[in-house]
Amino acid sequence: MTSTSSPGAAQGGSTPPDDLHLAGLLGHVLPAWLARQGTLLAVKDAATGAYVHVNDAMAQWLQCDAAALRAQGDAALSMPWPAPLRAAEQHALQLPPDKPLQSEHRFEWRGALHEYSVWRELRLLADGRRVLCSLWSDLAPQRREQQRVRELLQQMEQQQRLLNEQLDRQGGDGSPLDRATGLHLREFFDEQLRRALLLSVQESREFALVWVALDAPAGPAWDEAAQASVRATLARLLRANTRATDSTCHLGGQRFAVLMANVGMALAYGRMEQLRRECAAQIVVSGGRELRFTVSMGVAGCPHIAAELTELQSACEAALAQAQQRGGDQAALARVPFPVLQS
């Protein structure tokens, strides 16, 4: 007694469906998918212009019975198609089979404004007939979402302007502020730094000094307006993440500084790490564009790193350079010097 088996069964697998079976499966799936997407489908006989098939969504949009469309073609419509749509259809009919034509149309029809993206493709059937398949996607929801995003960006930009304008006001400690960033002027910052060094020597108080630099943008270079918006946003974040007893300063260009009184290096590093993460998550809107920025930081402390002004600033500079060399978007601690033992 002998038995036969298919190759698929011999290998423990199932027999793949033939083309007819697969077409039947797709015939069930495709209409449901098109209905879910709200896509309009129309299939026309290229020779006669009669509709071979329209889905329910297309029949409802045309406000015409599907049977009438199949019998009369476009003559069944209460109003003729606008000229640009007729021209696009004629263009698609002149193309070789299987070469699609995609176009967008904004038109007024039946007293309403419409905007659609249309995919047209000429196909050959098994009996030799040519049919033009058209898929229509309504662009109105997409346009509404784009408008909503534009309005949201405008609101964000306006809010950022209001916040940045607040930085122009006088500081709470009565010190003059830089109008461009709302941070302390360099002269005031340097005076605060000299005072912190004096207190460190006289009263053994520690403090931290941080150099902050904006990293170069990952994409195209920013124009001056974008750079100003990013600097103002960073300045606002610096103020939000420091105390009234601290001092923040715009050193110039893309460089900033923070003086944190009565704070050790470890605590200063933790606070600056939090600031760094906030910067990376911040969205700046300038000219309708979304900008992302990151910062590099060098953190040094007095008296553990250095007790002299120039040495402390050099330690900050070296730590900042190290953070930038590692790719940016990070904070680096200055190296702790170890005394050389002499025998």
UniProtKB/TrEMBL annotation:
The keyword Zinc does not apply. Residues 142-173 form a coiled coil. Residues 205-336 form the GGDEF domain. It comes from the Bacteria. It catalyses: 2 GTP = 3',3'-c-di-GMP + 2 diphosphate. Keywords: Coiled coil, Nucleotidyltransferase, Transferase. It holds the Pfam family GGDEF. It is an enzyme of class 2 (transferase). InterPro entries: Diguanylate_Cyclase, GGDEF_dom, Nucleotide_cyclase, Rev_trsase/Diguanyl_cyclase. This is diguanylate cyclase. It comes from Azohydromonas lata.
